[in-house]
Amino acid sequence: MARRLFVLLVLLAATAFGGPARAADPENTLYLDLEYGRVEIVLRPDLAPNHVARVKELARKKFYDGIIFHRVIDGFMAQTGDPTGTGMGGSGKKLDAEFSNEPFVRGTVGAARARNPNSADSQWFICFQDCQFLNGQYTVWGVVSKGMEYVDMIKRGEPPANPDHIVSLRVAADAK
After folding, report:
1. Distance CA 29, CA 24 (A)
2. Taking every annotated instance into account, which residue ranges of this chain make up the domain PPIase cyclophilin-type (predicted)?
3. Of 21, 126, 140, 165, which alpha carbon lies 20 to 30 A from 28's?
4. How far apart (Å, rounded) are the C-alpha atoms in residues 55 and 95?
C-alpha cells in the first residue's frame, strides 16, 4: 500500500509540474533507455542511500551502457548490471545490505546479490509482478514510474538467445 501511494504521489507531482515527461526530482530519477523506449526509475535514497549513490556513480561513468539483460524470467524479473554478461561479474565494489520493509511488487527495482546478504555490486533487477517472497531479503533502491510496458518487452531467458541490452542509463539531472 505504501509503495502504491508513493508511486501515485510521484506521478501526481510529475503531472502537476509539466506532465509525466518531467521528473519530480531529476537527481533521484534514472532514465533507462531500451531499444523499445525510455523507462523512468524513481530512486529511493530514503530506503537505500548507499545503493542509490553507487548506481548513480556508475550511471554517470556510463558503466551500464551496452550491458545485456542476462537473466529474464517470465512472471518474475529482468536482471542486468553484469559487464561480463554471465551473471558472475560486477563493478568490483560490494555493498552492505540495506533491507527495508518496502515490498517487492511490479516495477520494484532491487539489488541482485549472491548468497551473502552483503554481496550486492552493480547487478540489479526489475520485478515483472508482485515478488513479495523477496521482501526483507534484498535491497529495494528504486521503482519504475513510467515505461513499464518497455520492461515487459525484454526478451526472456537465462540468458536469452538474443538478449536485450541497456542503450543508456543516465541520472535525469545529467540528461539532455
Report:
1. 8
2. 37-176
3. 165
4. 11
pTM for the structure as a whole:
0.87
Which spans in 17-152 are helix H?
Answer: 49-60, 148-151
Classify residue 133 as exposed, middle or buried by CB count within 10 Å of its CB (0-12, 13-18, 19+): exposed
Cβ-contact 93, 85 below 8 angstroms: no
- Contact status, residue 137 vs residue 159, Cβ threshold 8 Å: no
Cell 560486477 appears where? 90
Whole-angstrom distance, CA of residue 85 vs CA of residue 70: 6
Span 124-153, pLDDT tens digits:
999 999 999 999 999 999 999 999 999 999
C-alpha neighbours within 13 Å on the C-beta side of residue 53? 9
